[in-house]
Amino acid sequence: MNELLLDPGASRLIVRTRAVGMLARLAHDLEITASDLRGRARLDGPSWTAEIAIDVRKLRVAGVVRGDRLDPDVLSAADRRDIEQRLQGEVLRGTDVVEVRASGATRDRADVRVQVASGSAALSLPLTSRERGDGAVGVEGSCQVSLAALGVREVKGPLGAFKVRDGIEVLFDLTLRPAG
Cα dihedral angle (126, 174, 170, 80), rounded to 10 degrees? Predict the structure, then answer.
């Protein structure tokens, strides 16, 4: 069995939200980055297991998404702080760490469980895995995670003029290095 540790400096995890509803055009689609990731994986031939922990206090609003392009300059520092506080205090209330557990029989597919204080969601997703010359393994992919499945209450704007779409997009590019 081979153990790998997540390299947080070489890894990234992004969450994208989309607004829907009557006045969604007035709302912002957001990109949120996880700046503090911890994790490990255990490889056993083609089979593997992995755990990742995401510190909710370190989730940061990177900016506004327009189509697939990030615009980091739309929001003020105060707006970013307000969104981050709402994310921690309301959306993910009671969650200090988002826990992700994954496993697979091959390196191109994962069965994943995401756990927050309000609930958990299970999903299956394709992966792209590549071995690097230095013994590191890169893993990338994307998926949709249902806020309702996680037990998260609907996230709405003022007067219910818009809401955040239930399926949030998660994109990840992780680098794992041999332990020790």
Answer: -170
**Could you tell me the CA-to-CA distances from 80 to 30, 31, 72, 91, 165 in Å, in that order?**
10, 11, 10, 15, 19
Three-state DSSP at 42 gives: strand
Residues in a beta bridge with 112: 102, 123
**Helices (DSSP H) in 123-164: which residue ranges?**
none
Do 114 and 135 touch, CB atoms closer than 8 A?
Answer: no
How many residues make up the chain in this entry? Answer: 180
Which pTM value belongs to this model?
A: 0.93
Residue 55, amino acid? D
Express each pLDDT in 49-68 by its tens digit. Answer: 999 999 999 999 999 999 88
Where residue 2 falls (left for φ over 0; alpha for ψ -120 to 50; beta otherwise) is: beta
